[in-house]
Structure formats: structure tokens, C-alpha cells
TrEMBL record:
Keywords: Hydrolase. SUPFAM superfamilies: alpha/beta-Hydrolases. The keyword Zinc-finger does not apply. The keyword Disulfide bond does not apply. This is Esterase. Belongs to the esterase D family. InterPro entries: AB_hydrolase_fold (IPR029058), Esterase-like (IPR000801), Siderophore_Hydrolase_D (IPR052558). It comes from Thalassobaculum litoreum DSM 18839. GO terms for molecular function: hydrolase activity, acting on ester bonds. Signal peptide: none annotated. PANTHER family: SIDEROPHORE TRIACETYLFUSARININE C ESTERASE (PTHR40841), SIDEROPHORE-DEGRADING ESTERASE (EUROFUNG) (PTHR40841:SF2).
């Protein structure tokens, strides 16, 4: 082994252009803070401002998105990706997820109560999606827009799993809030498909006025066909039963078709099935798709 000289001491690493802050909604002292991760490119924004990719489950996806932007935006002629901002909303934890809080924040009302995740823990509550959406739209967005040059016409919301469910809920509640909606492996089945109530409550006029696009996706192995490494596992049969019940691939595809019908446009929604991926391994692939959809360098020729 060759000798080497340690130039400096070990120290924490940080991603260039990133910052982080904690913020709590005003008016309720009992509301816990969110941790917001922000990436801003170097240089000057265009006259219209930076496009922005908003992401939920920020602790788990922020670094993946930043690397995807930085690598591809440095070569726009080869990637068709340009620079922009990333805003990832998470929680004050070093873990990838806060299961208790995301269960509340990312699920549509009215919600239910479930047993604790672990012995002695609090009950798990769902149904806080409207509160979370209000925080994003009425508190977080205005604060960021007062600080950064932001293109309000080029904003994306990304979510995966429960986050994908939230992205759909936000779409149906405030269809003009974002230009692009990315729902990866959305938990549409959740609580007897309660999300369908929000979809069906959106008026025909709202759908006719909808100019955005919806990207739904799922991994190849989010069906009853298990991933190869799972097929001989002791819980293989229970996994097949669960996947057959939730039908992530089939339902996401069906909902893409349904949105196209409601919006009266064949390009309002698309579905993509990612080969070789399961419910969790699909995450970085879906994040990259969100990056590519948000930071488009130039439109295709007609």
C-alpha cells in the first residue's frame, strides 16, 4: 500500500450552495418545527427567476436531488437540464425519515388513529395533509419568494410513497400551486382510497383550466412480481399479498389515464414504470426524473 499524508483533519462535509433552517407555523405553540433544506445555484437567475423543485421527505431526498442538478446542469447541451433551486421539507432529525410526523403531514383528511410504531410510543395519527399544504403555500413559499428570485410559473412538487399521495392531494386541492406534480409510487390505496374524494371534488372548470402536468411512476417490482432478492425470503407470500392489494403500478397508470380524461388533454399526465426497481430503490430514479422535469433547459421543437 502506498504511503499518504493527511493534509487536514477529518471534518463534516457540506454540499456547495446549500443551507438549512428550522421553521414552525405561526399561531400554534404546539406545532413542531420543520427543517427546510435549500439549494441555490451560483450566478445570476434569469429575468423570470429560478425554477424551483419543492420536495417532501426532505431528509431522504435533498442530497440526491442536489447531485443530480449539479452534474447535469453543468452540461445542458447533453442533458437539457439547467440550473435552479431545490427546497426540501423535512424534520429536525439526522434520520432519513420521521415516520410519526410524516404519517400525519402527508396523508389526506379526515385521517384515522393507529397503534404506536413501537411499545410505549404515541398513537400514529393521519389526516394532516391540509395543514401541511397550507404551511407550504401560505408560509414557506412567501418567505422564500421574498428572499430569492423565483419563477412562480416553473415550480414542481415531488413526493414518493406517502409523499406521492400528498402530491396528488395538493394537486386536487390547489391545482394552480405548481406547474409540475411528481407522484412516485403514490400510496393511492391508503385508507380505502380516500384521495379519490379530493380528486372527485375538483370541478370541471378547474380541470379545464389546468395547464400543468402530472408525472406518476412506480418501480417494476411494485406488483405481485417480487424483486429477485425477495422471492425466496420467509415473508415472500405476505409481500405478494400486500402488493396485490395496493396495486401501485396498476393504480398509478390508471390514475394517469383518468387525469388525462378529466383535464381533456392527452399530455396532462404520464405514467412511467422503472425497470428493476422496487418501492424504495425507485427513489433516486424518481428524484432524477423530477429534476429533469423541473429544470428544462429548452423546450422541444414543435
Amino acid at each position: 500500500m502506498a504511503d499518504a499524508t493527511l493534509i487536514d483533519t477529518w471534518c463534516p462535509a457540506s454540499l456547495p450552495g446549500t443551507s438549512v433552517f428550522d421553521i414552525a407555523p405561526s399561531g400554534d405553540a404546539g406545532v413542531l418545527p420543520y427543517r427546510v433544506f435549500v439549494y441555490t445555484p451560483s450566478g445570476e437567475a434569469s429575468e423570470t427567476g429560478w425554477p424551483v423543485l419543492y420536495m417532501v421527505d426532505g431528509n431522504a431526498v435533498f442530497a440526491t436531488a442536489i447531485d443530480a442538478v449539479r452534474a447535469q446542469a453543468s452540461y445542458p447541451k447533453g442533458t437539457n437540464v439547467t440550473h435552479g433551486m431545490v427546497v426540501a421539507i423535512g424534520y429536525p432529525t439526522d434520520a432519513a425519515y420521521d415516520p410519526l410526523r410524516r404519517s400525519w403531514d402527508l396523508s389526506p383528511p379526515p385521517g384515522r388513529a393507529y397503534p404506536p410504531f413501537h411499545m410505549g410510543g404515541p398513537d400514529v395519527r393521519t389526516g394532516g395533509g391540509e395543514d401541511f399544504l397550507r404551511f407550504i403555500e401560505d408560509a414557506l413559499k412567501p418567505m422564500l419568494e421574498a428572499r430569492f428570485p423565483i419563477d412562480r410559473g416553473r415550480q414542481t412538487l415531488f413526493g414518493h410513497s406517502f409523499g406521492g399521495l400528498f402530491a396528488l392531494y395538493a394537486l386536487f386541492r390547489r391545482p394552480a400551486a405548481f406547474r409540475t406534480w411528481v407522484a412516485a409510487s403514490p400510496a393511492i390505496y391508503w385508507e380505502d382510497t380516500v384521495i379519490a374524494r379530493s380528486r372527485d371534488a375538483l370541478s370541471g372548470d378547474d380541470w379545464r383550466d389546468f395547464k400543468g402536468r402530472v408525472l406518476l411512476s412506480a418501480g417494476e417490482y411494485e406488483t405481485a412480481e417480487l424483486a429477485p432478492f425477495q422471492r425466496r425470503a420467509p415473508d415472500a407470500e405476505s409481500r405478494r399479498t400486500h402488493l396485490s392489494k395496493v396495486r401501485t403500478v396498476e393504480t398509478a397508470r390508471e390514475w394517469a389515464d383518468e387525469i388525462n380524461v378529466l383535464a381533456g388533454r392527452v399530455d396532462a399526465a404520464t405514467f412511467e414504470r422503472f425497470a428493476g426497481e422496487n418501492h424504495m430503490s425507485v427513489l433516486p430514479v424518481a428524484v432524477n426524473r423530477a429534476v429533469q422535469a423541473t429544470f428544462v433547459a429548452q423546450t422541444e421543437e414543435p
